[in-house]
Write a structure and sequence with these properties.
The complex is a heterodimer. Chain A is α/β, with parallel strands linked by helices. Helix content of chain A is about 40%, strand content about 15%. The longest helix of chain A is centred in the middle third of the chain and has 17 residues. Chain B has one domain. In chain B, strands 1-2 form a two-stranded antiparallel ribbon. The chains are: A alpha/beta, B alpha+beta.
């Protein structure tokens, strides 16, 4: 029986889909059979980040409405053999998901896959609730700024109140991913540090991803950055994937880069 | 400025302000989200205290400290 892991954040634009794509590839590379599902009905994007947009024939709503079977809708990534993708539907009807049908789909997928990774939509509307309802675990992505941390906190409260596990008196295992941190700004005291965010959210950390301009390029080409060597953010994602599987991996040492000129510049600032 | 602040201890950046603001804001917001019964509790408390004395106001604040949730009840007694 597989595990359902929901990647969520509350606030939009903090890197949920990028995180989902990279962890999906990362977990598959570690030998897991992974299915990544885009739950952002009407605003699908995970397809482009994974570079699979041209292979979509059916989507999640087609499966739930029995217009095709599951195997027809699942797209197998050619670069990462044990990774499958189920796209969101581009309908305008955002209330199209039905709890029983979502439950059936996810239960079916759990039988076939080690990890079912759900990319939740931003916000706290019904699509979000569907994506957390059956979660075994949740990865809460937050950037180190007040809006994102505040929304993350709210989402954590909703997971604790509205997930099926919570209703059965159990707890969804929750971890925080801090995204786009800039060590230089943290050092200067102008960006919330990892410890600050964890103090506020009171949840364990599973990874810190530094701000990395190369991610834009990898999104442009539809090739998740985790496939690159010598990339600090790729390394961060690889380590998160390992920690998800329970390995005890050291956190990346994200120190501000300060050469001689950097130090000099610091003096005269 | 940064040279001097390095010499005389670290200057307070905007991050600490962000943290303080967030901590205060979330302490309030968590109440609504996690304790939907708070208002009813407050009304019941008022009824109970009224049996013994007069009451002006009851303030209930919550604090979250890692895994411990606390309710602080502040009762302002009315003048007899």
């Amino acid at each position: 029986m597989g595990t359902i892991i929901t990647v969520t954040s509350g606030k939009g634009g903090v890197g949920k889909s990028t995180t989902t794509a990279n962890l999906a590839v990362g977990l598959a590379n570690l030998g897991q059979k992974v299915v990544a599902i885009d739950f952002d009905i009407g605003l699908r994007n995970l397809d482009m980040i994974l570079g699979l947009e041209n292979r979509i024939v059916y989507d999640i709503v087609d499966v739930m409405e029995d217009r095709c079977n599951l195997a027809q809708a699942l797209i197998n990534d050619k670069k990462t053999k044990s990774l499958y993708f189920l796209p969101a539907s581009q309908t305008n009807d955002k209330d199209i998901l039905d709890r029983q049908k979502v439950k059936k789909l996810l239960t079916d997928l759990k039988k076939d896959f080690d990890i079912v990774l759900l990319d939740s939509p931003a916000g706290i509307e019904s699509g979000f609730e569907h994506s957390i309802f059956l979660a075994d675990r949740a990865l809460i992505v937050s950037t180190p700024d007040v809006s994102s941390v505040r929304d993350a906190d709210r989402v954590i409260g909703i997971i604790d109140a509205k997930s099926e596990k919570a209703k059965n008196g159990e707890e969804v295992e929750k971890h925080v991913i801090i995204n786009r941190i800039k060590p230089e700004m943290v050092d200067a005291g102008h960006m919330l540090s990892t410890d600050d965010v964890l103090d506020i959210l009171a949840l364990p950390l599973i990874g810190v991803v530094p701000d990395d301009e190369d991610i834009i390029g990898s999104t442009n080409t539809g090739d998740p950055i985790i496939r690159r060597d010598k990339s600090i953010s790729a390394e961060a994602y690889k380590r998160i994937a390992q920690r998800i599987l329970g390995e005890d991996i050291e956190f990346l040492d994200l120190k501000a880069k300060k050469g001689f000129f950097g130090a000099l510049k610091g003096i005269f600032k | 400025m940064s040279f001097l602040s390095n010499l005389f201890g670290k200057k307070k950046g905007t991050a600490s302000i962000a943290k303080d603001r967030l901590t205060i804001m979330l302490a309030h917001e968590r109440v609504d989200c996690k304790l939907p019964y708070l208002n009813d509790l407050r009304n019941d408390l008022i009824e109970v205290i009224k049996k013994y004395t007069s009451v002006d106001d009851i303030k209930i604040t919550t604090t979250n400290n890692q895994s411990v949730d606390m309710l602080e009840v502040e009762i302002t007694l009315g003048k007899k």
